[in-house]
Amino acid sequence: MQIPMNLEPSSQTLFSSTFQQPEPPVVNAEFKAHYKQHAYSPDFSHIASGTVYHSSHNNKVRVDATYSSSLVSSLFDYNNNSPSSDSAGRGIGMVWNTMYSLEPNVAARPKVWKGYVRPAFPLFEKEELVKGGAVFGGFVSMEDRYGDGGKAASWNIMYQDIAPVTVYVDTNDTVVGYDFFDPSMRGGIVTRYFNIDVVEHLDSNLFDFPI
Question: Are 51 and 32 in contact (CB under 8 A)?
Fold first, then answer.
């Protein structure tokens, strides 16, 4: 549920004399949802939409996407991480990714790609914001999601101590979107979730991709 315009608590309103920074919430970490995402840098602009299956229980995120006459199903396995480093020797979180794609139509032979990537779809654990020492950023308008001037609480963290991320959370402690920025490549990823279905556990069969 979004926060209606101008109805957020004054104690959590920036520049209010009664402001006190709230504690980071424990978020819902098991859900499926529709999404839209815009990833960009000086070299590309990529917009996709589809369905995401986010499972802290399975430690995996599955993304089914459509874009540019392509159908893609991508699995991020957070059980399989590979430490790496950039040219300056700084750690970069890499996650094993398996991606099936059909292009230019569903009758095409599937293409399969596997390898370690920096994921565009982070796995948010229940206590991700708590353990990450998230800083409250105030309530922000989410017109690109709600369309009616509704707001969500924004929280700023360094995801995996590497990536600066702003996470947007509704009144049900559900993540409704996030903004990620990578200064090293002047890139950004803006993601919004819709029609979110929070469950106790997602079926592990959803994440059983053929080898």
Answer: yes
Residue 51, phi-psi category: left (phi > 0), alpha (psi -120 to 50), beta (remainder): beta
Q: How confident is the model at residue 25 (pLDDT cuts 50, 70, 90)?
A: very high
Strands 91-102, 151-159: pairing kind: unpaired
* 4 residue type, one letter: P
Beta bridge partners of 138: 154
What tokens were used for 113?
Answer: 């790609």
CA triple 79-80-81, angle to 5 deg: 110
Q: Tens of pLDDT along 108-133?
A: 888 999 999 889 999 999 999 999 99
Which 3 state secondary structure label does DSSP give 119?
coil
The residue count of the chain comes to: 211
CA distance 92 to 38: 22
Q: Residue 20, CB half-sphere, CA atoms under 13 Å: how many?
A: 4
The residues, any chain, with a CB within 8 Å of residue 136's CB and separated by 6 or more, are 12, 21, 22, 24, 153, 154, 155, 156
135 Cβ neighbours under 8 A, 6+ residues apart: 21, 155, 156, 157
Kindly state the tokens that stand for 81: 């991480």
pLDDT higher than 90, residue 36: yes
Distance CA 181, CA 46 (A): 15
Rg, Å, the chain Cα set: 18
